[in-house]
Amino acid sequence: MPLILPLLLAVLLFCIGVYGVLARRNAITLLMSFELMLNAVNLNLVAFDAWRLDGLATGQTLAVFVITLAAAEIGLGLAIVLLLFRGHGHVDADAARDLVEQDATEQRKGAAT
């Protein structure tokens, strides 16, 4: 198989992930978009490893490392989303950013009095 086919698929996956990060407001959709981008990177790593034909399998080793990193990221991200939903009743990323700024402002006002 030519190298260009997996690379085009990886570019397509990465572009879909970037669109999801830039256009969506839901935190779950953001996490899924990050996963799509990481899977595109994994596809590139494995494709270049198969293309190089060395015996070290460095691309596959790095892909396993990226999968481990993605699992840790999704676990932490889902915990944050669950706490956000429990505390505020929504998972809107922009509103969560506004809530953090309001909480910090309220704490400053409470400390001043």
Structure commentary:
This is NADH-quinone oxidoreductase subunit K. The chain crosses the membrane at residues 62-85. Pfam families: Oxidored_q2. NDH-1 is composed of 14 different subunits. Subunits NuoA, H, J, K, L, M, N constitute the membrane sector of the complex. It contains 4 helices and no strands. The protein has helices at residues 4-23, 27-52, 58-88, 93-112. α1 runs antiparallel to α2 (27-52) and α2 (27-52) packs antiparallel against α3 (58-88). The chain is elongated and about 70 Å long. 11% of the residues are buried.
CATH fold annotation: Helix Hairpins
What is Rg? 19 Å
Shape descriptor: elongated
Helix percent reads: over 70%
The N- to C-terminal Cα distance equals 70 Å
- Global mean pLDDT: 87
CATH C-level class: Mainly Alpha
Keywords:
mainly alpha; 113 residues; elongated; 4 helices; Helix Hairpins
Compact description:
The chain is mostly helical and 113 residues long. It has four helices and no strands. Keywords: Cell membrane, Membrane, NAD, Oxidoreductase, Quinone, Translocase, Transmembrane, Transmembrane helix, Transport.
